[in-house]
Structures are given as structure tokens and as C-alpha cells.
Amino acid sequence: MEKVLLQIALILIATKIGGIAARKFKMPEVLGALIAGVLIGPVAFNLVVYDDNIKLLSNLGVIMLMFLAGLETNLNEFKKAGLSAFVIAVAGITVPLLLGTFCAYLFFQNFLENVFIGVILTATSVSITVETLTELGKLNTRAGINILGAAVIDDILGLMIISVLLAVSGKGEHGGSGSLIFTIAEILVFCIVSVIAIMFLPKVLNKLLKDFRPSRAFLTFAIAAALLAAFIAESLGIAAITGAYLCGLLLSQFVHKETLERGLKSISSGFLAPIFFASVGIEANLTGFSIKTLMIALSMFAVAVIGKVIGCGAAARLFRMNRSESLQVGVGMVSRGEVAIITANIGLQTGIITNEVFLPTIVVVILTTIVTPILLKLSFSHKYEKAIQ
Questions:
Q1: Residues 101-105: what's their mean pLDDT?
Q2: Strand, coil or helix: what is 354?
Q3: For residue 119, what is the domain's CATH number?
Q4: How many angstroms separate the CA atoms of 162 and 118, rounded?
Q5: To the nearest 10°, the Cα dihedral for 239, 240, 245, 248?
Q6: pTM of the predicted model, to two decimals?
Q7: Span 333-352, pLDDT tens digits
Q8: What whole-number distance in Å separates Cα of residue 364 and Cα of residue 242?
């Protein structure tokens, strides 16, 4: 127990120092936390080990982060971005999928494995982007809303593609087309129920609780609801963060929303979120790294960045977003994070891909996670906005 306490203390101290240093260089604090995680992990000083305790706190951290993002989202703006977010998500999946599959043929000849590499590169982890947008005060901009909406849709569409691949390969949970139909049916039910809940449940809650004084009990029940939504999403094979975000979106219409925000920010920003950001670097283990691994990783990284910037950026232009907004959307979708790792892990466990693909995926996750806050900061700066325009 004492070792775990020491590791948590080291993470919190390192991420805070990293955040202060990043702010000195006029970069988002999250970037400093990410680099701090790499430094205290096995890649550098090996002070903290990524074990089950850190993993649990990290998972809770990303769930609370996305719950808070949903809570802070302007639902009216989110509704307006419905169609554009969907098109951006589709483009952001299609371009990396095609580019990733094509580039994979430079190293491998197995069609199924190459397609799965493309699928890995379709993933989007919006948690890093959310924290950066929040720091920059851009979460509820047109670009920010579209990034959030597209990332949620991206997660659902990505899961459907994985289900198709597993069904085609006969390696799904139930095998064959039955697994595919069952999984898609579950996802559709989850989506329909979520939309209905977001539309009608807040009115009922506000009517029942409008005369109650704000209290800590609201925060406790809200966190429990977020964890329950995350559990249901995870049980259906959808990322837990999607369930947490949708729960936050539902409660963003709650009459005592400000009370929830204040309490949740203390828990998330002060404790759990730093552990999640650090864990991305801590989890990295580059044992078995080779020149070929580096070449695969660099190719995947190039596709990861270009695929999202071109795919999502071009889709954003279709909806009359200006050049700087389109670039912001594309850059905001670059980070792969835990979503790509989960996807790659599914491929590894089912034997579709080998460790030769899994290791470069970890490198791509680290690189995209580090560059996303930098690129977002630049894309939102007035100097670069004018140059782009």
C-alpha cells in the first residue's frame, strides 16, 4: 500500500511541475503532464510502474474528464453541429482507414492485418483535446463543439467496423454474422436510449429538484450516474468515456449544473485527471524496439496526423467553416490515446495483428498525444489564424 501512495504522490508532483513548466513556455498544462509521465515512467527514470492501481485511477480520471466535458458543453450548439459532426466523423474514419491500409502494405502482406492497422488509425481519443480546449477557453467554439460531437460518433462507427472485421474473420465473441448483428443492435439501442434520455429526462429532473437547495448529495449521485453510464457503454463494447460524456451532456441541462461543475473540477483537475495524463507516458514500454518498428511507427504517425487533418478538415469546409476552424477540427481529432490502444489490443488478443504492429501503435499514441496540444495551441493563436486565413 505504501508503494502505491508514494507513486501517486510522485505522479501528482511531477504533473504539476510539468504543467507549470509548460505554462512558462506558453503551452497547455496537459502537455507538461504528458511529458512528466514519460519521464517518470520506464522510458526514462522508471520511478513509477503502470500497475492495476494506477490503471484504475487512470480509467476513473478519463471518465471524470469526459463527464466534465459533457457537463460543460453547450447543448444547443451541440445540436446545431449534429450533421456536420457526423460528416466530419465519417471523413475522419474513411481517410485514415484507406491511407493506413495502403501504407501497411509497405511492411505486411496480410489483407486482414493491414485493414486492421487502418482501423486502429481511425480511432480518436478526445480527452487530451478536451483538456487543451478547456485550458484555452475554446471548448464551446464552433470547432470545439464539432470535435466533441465527431469524436463520440467516431467511437461508435469505429466499433461497428471492428465488429464487422471480427465477424468476417470468425473471431468475434459469438463468431460469424450473429456476433455482428447482435453488436450493432446493442449499439443502436444504446444510441436511441441516450438521445431520448438527453431530450426528456432533464425536464423531469429539474421539475422534481428545482425546490431543493444545492448540496454535495447532488455531486455524489451525479458521479454515480456517470459511472453507471460508463459501465453500460463498456458492457456493450462502446468506450466507457462515451457513456460518461453522454451522461454529462444530459446533466448539462440540470438546474444545479454549476454546483456539479465546481465539485467535479476539484476531483478531476486536482487528482484523477493528472494521473490519467501521466499514465499515457508511464504505460509506454519500448522493449523489443527495432529499426523496422520505428519505420512502421513513423508511417503510422504520418497517416494518423495527415488522415485526420485532411479528412476532418475537408469535411468541416463543406459546412462553410473557414480555413482556421477546419484546421482546428482536423488537429483536434489527431490524438489517438487509449482508444487506439484498446483497438490494437483487441486485434492482438484475437490474433489479427502481431506484437510487431502493437508496439508501433503505442509509439503513435505517445506521439499524437504530445503533438495534439501543441498543434491546437498554434491553430487557435491569432497569429496563425491570420496566416491561415
A1: 94
A2: coil
A3: 1.20.1530.20
A4: 11
A5: 160
A6: 0.73
A7: 998 866 777 678 778 877 88
A8: 22
